[in-house]
Amino acid sequence: MSLENVQAYLSKWNREKDIRIFTTSSATVLEAAETLGVEPQRIAKTLSFRKDNNAILIVAAGDAKIDNKKFKQAFSEKPRMLSPEEVLEKTGHAVGGVCPFGLTEDLPVYLDESLKRFSTVFPACGSSNSAIELTNEELYIYGNAVEWVDVCKDWE
Asked: Cross-referenced Pfam families, in alphabetical order (predicted)?
């Protein structure tokens, strides 16, 4: 159902046919990179955090890790990830297919600076065997991003 929600959502931009569906798993950064034949850092992973008794999504490069200090500076709270059950409830996507498209709740989406190194990146599309290639501008628009943030480390 989640993949279908993303397909319907991306049809607003006539991009639903650009979603790639695989026979192998793309649930982790390494699996997605291997399946797509790209470097792991070009996988745009979507991370789900608690914020003000709700949730936010941060899309970051595959090789980036959340920097606790930067996160707290940006959001005035320490990072606390949602449980897999909360992720499914808030996004409509199970862990391994989480993306900022076709969400069940209108959550704030932030894009991390770590993505700006690449002309295109590969976010999931609601399932553990799907992805789409997007420019950062497309990711920003389709993901309805709030803003770019610098909350990650280990990618520079």
From this structure: tRNA_edit (PF04073)
According to the CATH classification, is domain 2-153 in 3.90.960.10?
A: yes
Instruction: Give the whole-angstrom CA distance, residue 21 versus residue 2.
Output: 13
How many H-runs (helices) and E-runs (strands) does the chain carry?
Answer: 5, 10
Which secondary-structure segment (H or E) carries 149? strand 145-149
Which residue in this structure is represented by tokens 């990618």?
155
Rounded Cα gap, residues 45 and 37, in angstroms: 16
Nearest to 109 by CA among 151, 77, 70: 151
d(CA 91, CA 130): 16
* Residues 111-154: tens digit of each pLDDT: 999 999 999 999 999 999 999 999 999 999 999 999 999 999 99
Indicate the domain borders of the chain: 2-153
Looking up tokens 């790639």 gives 20
| DSSP labels, 56-117 | EEEEEETT-EE-HHHHHHHHSS---BPPHHHHHHHHS--TTS--SSS-SS---EEEEGGGGG
